[in-house]
Amino acid sequence: MIRRLRRRIALVIAAIAAALGGVAITHRAPSEERPRAEEQRRPRDRDRDEPRRDRPSDRPKDRDGDARQRPPRDSAPPGLVVGEYRLARVIDGDTVRVDGLDASLRLIGIDAEETFKSNADRRDFESASWADYLAKKRGDSKRPIKAPTPMGDAARTWGSRWFTGDRRVRIERDHPAEIRDRFDRYLAYVMAEKDGRWVNYNVELVRAGMSPYFPKYGNSRRFHREFVEAEAEAKAAKRGIWEPGAKAYPDYPEREAWWTARGDFVAAFRREGEGKPGYIDITHEDALAQLQARVGQEVHVLGTIDDVSKGTRGPGRLRMMHDQHRSISAVFAEPDVLARSGAAAWRGEFVVVTGVPRLRGSKKGGEERIEIAVERASQLRLSPVPGLPAP
Predict the structure, then answer these.
(1) Which residues contact 331 (CB under 8 A, 6 or more apart)?
(2) Structural domain of 107
(3) What phi-psi label fits residue 365: left (phi over 0), alpha (psi between -120 and 50 degrees) or beta?
(4) Cβ distance 170 to 74 under 8 Å?
């Protein structure tokens, strides 16, 4: 009797143990799977720290609102992609505006002709022959000028059509420190998705003959070859401004010689100063900070001459603008040094000033000004200008 009771108790205990073992296994299974579940969540957690342009939810959508399965191929290394924005409007062939940025975009490497923005300009165009209209606009200017033309309007129309259906565009830079121009516009390449890849609008405008390649402010670092090839293609096909008889600027050979000389001058400065902190482009976002950090040390500063004062009541000086509100000055110790430098004839042109920066307090209590003392004309290196003899 006792043996049977013991046997039954043993069987009950075994059954309970088996049951408990099953429960333990049931609870253990999720804990064993948890590391894999966490590993699956980690990539999604990392996505929260990624730029918005790389997140699937921010990819461009098609007309039905469904996210495209294949994102466009990247065309720029990190640091040069500003982001993706909704296109607001095309202002003219080389200027567009997007939602989310506080200024319009000045598109790198292109210079479409001017659009008609006033009735007065349009009346001037309609009331005179094409040659007389252009001659009146240029006047006695020694260098080519900008004037409204039918090809300017055509470039704006072409740009608007090219972006049709592309509500989201991608903004890229040429250099991390080249962010805005002196008029506060963002310097940019504008990419739009075409057949699953990002296509450079700037280059395509040149390929269509709506603009020449424009290296006046320096050759494109990233797309110089593409621009050159696109322009050669447009010229060979006689597209747009290159079409015989087109009402476009007739002096492009003169313009191109001028722009190329300037672009080569900037390219030479970049090569010479590569990796050297004493070479400073005044247009770069961090240029003033670089100059302040090198007060008392020799620097070479690239900029355009915005203004020259001959110093009838003090030392002569030339001014190079960093932006609309800030600039640096080269101060000439003697009037004859300024005269020998030739700076007065080089307004609007590139110059490299070599010297030692110093800080001067503002008379109105504002931030300190940066100056470079010029004691010898050789401290100024002027960019070549075709037709303008060097001093």
Answers:
(1) 315, 316, 317, 371, 372, 373, 374
(2) 71-113+149-250
(3) left
(4) no
Overall pTM surpassing 0.85 (yes/no)? no
Residue 309's DSSP bridge partners are: 317
Domain CATH code at residue 368: 2.40.50.140
Closest by alpha carbon to 372, among 299, 272, 314? 299
Q: Comparing C-alpha atoms, which of 94, 90, 91, 87 is closest to residue 205?
A: 94
345 and 288 in a common domain: yes
**How confident is the chain (391 residues) per 10-residue block, as mean pLDDT?**
52 45 36 34 34 36 37 64 94 94 93 96 95 95 94 97 91 95 92 93 98 96 97 98 97 96 97 97 95 97 94 82 93 90 94 96 74 95 91 80
Kindly give the residue spans of alpha helices, DSSP state H, lying in the chain: 2-47, 119-126, 130-138, 150-162, 201-207, 224-237, 252-273, 287-293, 335-341
Nearest to 385 by CA among 212, 298, 258, 275: 258
Number of domains in the chain: 2
Does 201 share its domain with 239? yes
Cα-Cα-Cα-Cα torsion 375, 379, 380, 384, nearest 10 degrees, comes to 140
Measured between alpha carbons, how far is 24 from 293 in angstroms, rounded to an integer?
A: 68
CATH number for the domain harbouring residue 227: 2.40.50.90
Name the nearest CA neighbour of 168 among 194, 132, 136. 194
Across the chain, which distance is largest between two alpha carbons, in Å?
Answer: 130
H or E segment to which residue 350 belongs: strand 350-355
One domain for residues 241 and 280? no
